[in-house]
Amino acid sequence: MHRSGTSALTGLLGLLGVELGSNLHPANEFNQAGYFEHLDLLDVHERLFRALGSSWDDPRPLPLGWPQVPAVQELQ
Predict the structure, then answer these.
(1) What is the rounded distance in angstroms from the CA atom of residue 45 to the CA atom of residue 68?
(2) What is the enclosing helix (H) or strand (E) of 7?
(3) Where does residue 41 fall: left (phi above 0), alpha (psi -120 to 50 degrees), or beta otherwise?
(4) Phi, psi of 30 (to 5 degrees)
(5) Contact 20/74 with Cβ under 8 angstroms?
(6) What is the mean pLDDT of each run of 10 residues along the chain (76 residues)?
(7) DSSP for 9-72?
(8) Separation CA 62–CA 23 (nearest Å)
(9) What's the pLDDT score for residue 3?
(10) What is the CA radius of gyration of the chain?
């Protein structure tokens, strides 16, 4: 979720020695330290939201039964 502290927490875990991988979301003008989110995982999340007709900034809850949606099952 936007501005929820995920980058700060993941960055801290990386400083503590957790291997974050090499395909991380790069820094930009909005977050000069970097985001520390793995780009492949971000891609899966974006595809999941699209399959459900949603997006990361959609405040509505996911539909009931969303794990059983065929497009979601394909992403597993």
Answers:
(1) 16
(2) helix 6-15
(3) alpha
(4) -85, -25
(5) no
(6) 77 94 91 88 92 92 94 88
(7) HHHHHHHTT----S-BPPPBTTBTT----BHHHHHHHHHHHHHTT--TT--SPPPTTGGGSHHH
(8) 28
(9) 65
(10) 15
CA distance 39 to 45: 10
Please tell me the predicted confidence (pLDDT) of residue 15. 94
Cβ contact 25:45 at 8 Å = no
Separation of alpha carbons 14 and 47, rounded Å: 26
pLDDT at site 76 = 82
